[in-house]
Write a structure and sequence with these properties.
The complex is a heterodimer of chains A (367) and B (333). Chain A is mainly α. Chain A has 14 helices and five strands. Classes of the chains: A mainly alpha (367), B mainly alpha (333).
């Protein structure tokens, strides 16, 4: 190539090129993720600084508020339990690229079903049978709530994101109706009575046994996804429905089956919340858990074991946000803002894992 | 008849924020970006519109109504556009998953609005974040033609026409104007046709020399701004200029569904917003004898019905931009 031609090529070459990275070492990928996480925390620190507080003091107060004493540690774990199970549920649907944002409604549906037995059957049977019945009813109700949109998606390709979301409002409306009507506690206020002692989950190490259920479910989902035929089919459907069809899988059936499983998991969250945490059913039984679970599942890359760590981390953030509200007067919604920022950074950093940037001069790789 | 006129009147008022959200999302989706962050951007617009007027009054004293209106529109547009810019940067430049990025924007936007709403409220002497009576008046429904109501006299129909056409707040008219301008833009202008080409087949558009990413960014950011104005309508008109925690309350999601209902057509969005606005206030005008909690579910149940019906019919009649929901990588064509 003559010098002139080379100069011409150079002139037309973009100043920055994006090149696919075929393989990246695991360590490097996690280093990039860690860097993004730190950047997000710094971004949050900037926000705290703008509010006129010391970021270091606020962050350490958050951690102290979440894990500093036994009482706060217990309540942090109580936040993490429903988050973890709901995240498992969300991960199942996201694995097949079924954008289910209806975990919230599935939790509430489960809560309603469990509450029916807690309110009207407590005392009529041994505790163990009552709990099993509540749990089964909650799982069935959640499964129903999850299966309806999956069926429509399988049959007519109905938009699942909006369908599952609308079902959240329907479940919420049903609870409000039950509060003000059929299940209203005597006394005028539209609320449901507290459960009988017989319908309250027992505690182990000061936390209701939901935490054991959660750990068991992590193992179950983990095995389901990585070891079972169904789990494999779920992943293939998510990667490429055409491949799945070509391999002889019944895509619609996989969709519905997985959503029944996912809905059942979310329904169990409803059971744990009403029977273990609140001892009653309110419109706050789900309290945004279904949405935060999406964050947990995605941050953990849909990996069940990683979700345990992420769920605890998000729980620390939420509990800590409550603490800084009382200490510094920073609204508790700060945790939502911070979660949003962290997730933005984590979403963005995947780009640098999959691609590398090449600058025009010198051709040196970066990122 | 009076009851019907009142119902329609209330439906228009309740439908306008839905209209803005739907229009913003239509513009966004026409570029091939499915932004599920409408709820979040509306929240951001709701707080920033209110905060814009609140701080302007704090610094410069009371202003005339029209200035307040302009400040609110500008602030909410910019803030909604800022949210959309985050989404755009992540999905267009960094190629992140559109669904998850949109959901994150919703989580972020809700947190953002409630966070700053509480901070500003707790810093104000009254512990309420509210604007002056004069500024509130700018967003109130007022007769467009002042003498017309008096003229009506015994001619009831003049009263009806006046009420149905000429007695809203200015933002209602702005919403309809935006819809008509957008319909014209998408169907009659070169830039609009280019934008649609980008949403349908970005690779072909790219080959034809259309700057795909520039179109995607502009449509997404302007669309987000329009959603922001819709949020401002809620805090300024629906909530009378007072910050209410969680005020958008799911309207953004209904707007996303309305895009499907309107089959990606801005002029049909006007009709859709009217219907869904009507459904949300129907219980105050048409008693059906069912519990109010169930009656309140009507817009959501109707949305589900619309989703199912359109999906059943859509096998023949595809109106969604073909590349909507997928990112475009030039290198991976």
């Amino acid at each position: 190539m003559t010098e002139q031609a080379a100069a011409a090529v150079k002139q037309h070459e973009p100043w920055l090129r994006i090149v696919n990275r075929p393989v990246i070492s695991r360590r490097k990928a996690w280093a990039i993720r860690a860097a993004a996480f730190i950047a997000a925390i710094l971004c949050g620190a900037l926000l705290i600084l703008l509010l006129g507080h010391s970021p270091f003091a606020v962050y350490s107060e958050m951690i102290k508020g979440a894990v500093g004493s036994k009482i706060s540690l217990v309540s942090t774990i109580k936040i993490a339990i429903p988050l973890l199970i709901a995240a498992l549920s969300v991960a199942l649907s996201f694995k097949m690229q079924f954008w289910n944002i209806g975990a919230e409604g599935q939790i509430l549906a489960g809560g309603i079903a469990a509450s029916y037995f807690a309110l009207y059957w407590a005392g009529a049977m041994p505790a163990l049978i009552l709990f099993l019945l509540m749990c089964a009813a909650a799982a069935a109700a959640g499964a129903l709530w999850g299966a309806i949109p999956a069926l429509c998606k399988a049959k007519w390709n109905t938009n699942e994101t909006l369908f599952t979301l609308m079902l959240n409002y329907v479940a919420l409306g049903l609870i409000k109706y039950l509060q003000a009507g059929p299940w209203q506690k005597p006394g005028g206020h539209p609320q449901i009575a507290m459960f009988d002692d017989a319908a309250r989950l027992p505690k182990i190490f000061d936390v209701h046994i939901g935490w054991i259920i959660a750990i068991v479910l992590v193992a179950v989902v983990s095995v389901f996804l990585s070891r079972s035929k169904h789990g494999f089919e779920t992943a293939v459907v998510g990667q490429s429905p055409n491949t799945a069809r070509y391999a002889g899988m019944h895509v619609g059936r996989v969709l519905v089956r997985t959503m029944i499983f996912a809905g059942a998991l979310a329904g169990i969250v409803g059971f744990i919340q009403v029977s273990g945490a609140d001892y009653t059913l309110t419109e706050n039984t789900a309290g945004g858990v279904g949405f935060t679970a999406i964050t947990v599942a995605w941050l953990a890359q849909l990996h069940p074991l990683a979700m345990m760590a992420v769920a605890v981390f998000i729980a620390v953030l939420e509990k800590g946000a409550g603490r800084i509200q009382t200490t510094y007067g920073i609204p508790a919604s700060a945790s939502d803002v911070l979660i949003g920022i962290i997730l933005f950074f984590m979403l963005g950093c995947e780009f640098f894992i999959h691609y590398r940037l090449i600058l025009r001069k010198g051709g040196k790789a970066r990122g | 008849m009076d009851n019907l006129v009142n119902l329609l009147y209330a439906a228009v008022l309740a439908g306008t924020p839905l209209l803005f959200g739907t229009l913003g999302e239509i513009l966004t989706e026409k570029s091939g970006n499915l932004n599920l962050g409408v709820e979040g951007m509306m929240f951001m617009g709701a707080i920033s519109g209110l905060a814009g007027v609140y701080f302007a009054e704090m610094w410069f004293g009371e202003m005339t109504g029209i200035i307040c209106m302009l400040i609110a529109i500008l602030a909410s547009f910019l803030c909604g556009a800022f949210g959309a810019l985050i989404y755009g940067f992540l999905t267009i430049t960094l190629r992140a998953n559109q669904n998850v990025t949109g959901l994150t924007l919703t989580i972020f936007g809700i947190g953002f609005a409630n966070f700053f709403g509480e901070i500003i409220a707790s810093a104000s002497p009254s512990k309420f974040m509210t604007i002056s009576t004069g500024a509130k008046a700018a967003f109130a429904n007022s007769p467009l033609i002042p003498g017309l109501a008096a003229l009506a006299g015994e001619h009831r129909w003049i009263y009806w026409i006046n009420k149905l056409l000429f007695s809203y707040n200015l933002l209602v008219y702005l919403g309809i104007a935006v819809a008509l301008v957008m319909a014209w833009f998408l169907n009659k202008t070169r830039a609009g046709l280019n934008l649609r080409a980008v949403g349908e087949d970005p690779a072909a558009a790219d080959a034809a020399g259309i700057p795909v990413n520039r179109y995607k960014y502009l449509a997404t950011v302007i669309g987000g701004g329009i959603c922001g104005v819709g949020g401002m309508y809620i805090s300024m008109v629906t909530a009378y200029g007072v910050w209410v925690h969680g005020c958008v309350g799911g309207r953004g999601w209904i707007a996303v569904a309305l895009v499907i209902f309107a089959t990606w057509s801005p002029s049909r969005a006007i009709f859709g917003a009217l219907v869904f606005g009507g459904l949300s206030i129907l219980r105050m005008y048409v008693p059906l004898g069912i519990p109010i909690e169930i009656y309140d579910l009507l817009p959501y149940l109707a949305t589900i019905l619309v989703l199912i019906v359109t999906s059943v019919r859509q096998s023949k009649d595809h109106n969604i931009p073909k590349h909507c929901g997928f990112n475009y990588f030039r290198e991976e064509r």
